[in-house]
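Marked as duplicate of an earlier ticket. Keeping the data here for the record.
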Amino acid sequence: MGHPSMHNPTTDPDDRLKAFGNQLVNVHLWLRDELADLRENVEAYLSGDGPRPRELRAHCLTFCSAITRHHVGEDETAFRALAEEFPELHPVLEELRHDHETVADLLRQLQDLLDDLDPSDGQRARRELDGLSALLESHFTYEERRIVGALNALPAPEWRTSRPDFLLTANDG
């Protein structure tokens, strides 16, 4: 029989709250969509048919804050719990933490660029967004491949009553 935290969703109404790895994938899908929206808004602005710079900065800040909340939550909550339960994941978790630092640097650079974005900065803005998108896609894919199963098996009953930050989207709260 499977791990106690793995239940058939048709027989266990709490399955959605137990399958933490599956929730992580859903958060990544949401973050991918948010980044795609930001890219579309930047592109629309650069082509002269998009949001005002102030709206663009606000969207960037919202996206950057969501990514930061997610990664800090992983570092402080998920990765600590995984390291205790699955010590063999230590090298993977260290690599993911390093990615988080790199993403944070790229987010700061993007925020600075978008704070004073001018259409003449179009190529640079596209390069920054391309780099961030590529890194996040690689990071999310690697993370999903390496830790989703462990998160799904993780006994963390407190997460059922108070969902940790790394599992939140804009619709939660």
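See parent ticket for discussion. The mean pLDDT is 86.
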